[in-house]
Amino acid sequence: MTKLPEYNFQPATLKFLSAPKQLFINNEWVAPKDGKTFETINPATGQVLAEVALAGEADVDAAVAAAKAAFPAWAATIAADRAALLFKLADLIDAHADTLAELETLDNGKPIRVASRGDLPYVTKHLRYQAGWADKIEGSTVPVTFPNQFVYTRREPLGVVGAIIPWNFPLLMAIWKLGPALTAGNTLILKPAEQTPLSALYLAELVREAGIPAGVVNVLTGPGEPTGAALAAHMDVAKIAFTGSTAVGGRIMEAAAKSNLKRVSLELGGKSPNVIFADADMNAAIRGAQWAVFSTAGQECVAGTRLFVERSAYDQVVEGLRLNVERMVVDHGFAEKVHVGPLVSEQQLSRVSSYIDEGKKAGAQLVTGGERVGEGGYFMKPAVFAYQDDSIKLVQEEIFGPVAAVTAFDSWDELVERSNSTMYGLAAGVWTKDVGKAHRYAHAVQAGTVWINGYGMIDPAAPFGGYKMSGFGREMGKEAIDLYTQVKTVWVNTQ
Length: 495
Ligand code: NAP
Ligand code: MG
Fold this sequence. Notes:
The chain is α/β, with parallel strands linked by helices. It is built from 16 helices and 22 strands.
């Protein structure tokens, strides 16, 4: 095994790391049919953490067959009993939270404090919230124009759901999909990102321990091609729930269109505007703007990467941001003090670096940061750019790294126009003491979530999803259940 950082790891973490990592199909650990594996890397060191099974098409077929066979009984299980199993799973996740947080930090790089106080508690909050819907999924009676016809609707599950998720919040993304999918009576195939497969595999063991029946949850590790693509093209998969890049989201829709018209929900990238008006509480706004973009080393879909500042406050904000950002500690996730961990992979580091180079060439002014730190791991100093030209790549494209772009605005119309000038529409923030202005902006901006005098809060009860090319479908809240069910209308002749 590779060298781990100085840290008092849970014995379960060490045991898990040294055990074989197979595929989880029908509540059993199985080797991939063609014996292939891939490596998952510790982004803080660049070293291999573990060898993981690589699911090929035949393995996808086997998992889908298991999930399909498990579906009728799971869908017919009394809703409260389904919920009870999910509550049991939540309890087990809580009991193993330290280990799961350590695996997230090892695999993804995020600070352990964030994994254990942010990701993990939120995972179980979400699961419990969704499980609570199980026995509240109701249909309705419909007053039709025919006499002697009684018409009612039922909300029924879809069948086998494929969940394809990214690496920024590995376990959380898994539960965002698993929670509502299972609550509503679907069975699941989970494909974690190839960069961060570990917590999903650990979760599989807890699924079995919770007593969730065989075939209801299957975990297939492997890359987008072939594992994800085979799921997206499968004739027996009823839906793909996807979080990731807009490009891959498009490919998934294409695969759905060419196969069985499976349902697709997409939570994609963003290039979210965050606005500071001159009347805002400046300390809160600058701090808020800083964390809006640099949490998780900027690898968040909602990152407030485009910071719009009212002209009269611009210099103060740029300087305040620079000072705050230069104080941020870049280090590995288990360090005593760390604000910004490594980027998830070498590929991600070089993608982000190329955006920085291009930004400079395109005339944006680098205020601070942007250089690689150290050699083994994939660390980068948080970067702040000042810019005016909205058309440059740095400002239009999702970078998914620690890069903020700050600009000044002069008028309301300019602000709204520029806020909405990317293909994305996931989130937005606005900082002002003027309540009316805050709501006016919240209504004018094309975004699925808007935060007023805050940034980044997400809650299991609050619907979440994108406008425009940030995707469609709303996860969380009751709307998440709608994403995993379909309506059946039943006509009864009462004559
Ligand atoms: P990605 O390629 O979209 O990956 C997301 C998931 O889709 C992963 O599990 C990936 O597998 C899988 N996948 C890739 N190609 C596929 C295909 N043809 N069919 C089915 N599944 C497929 O994202 P990424 O490469 O990890 O990151 C690239 C960029 O995406 C980031 O820089 C960022 O801009 C964006 N992103 C957005 C979010 C978000 O939360 N909205 C999250 C992550 C990334 P493998 O990765 O295992 O191959
Ligand atoms: Mg990794």
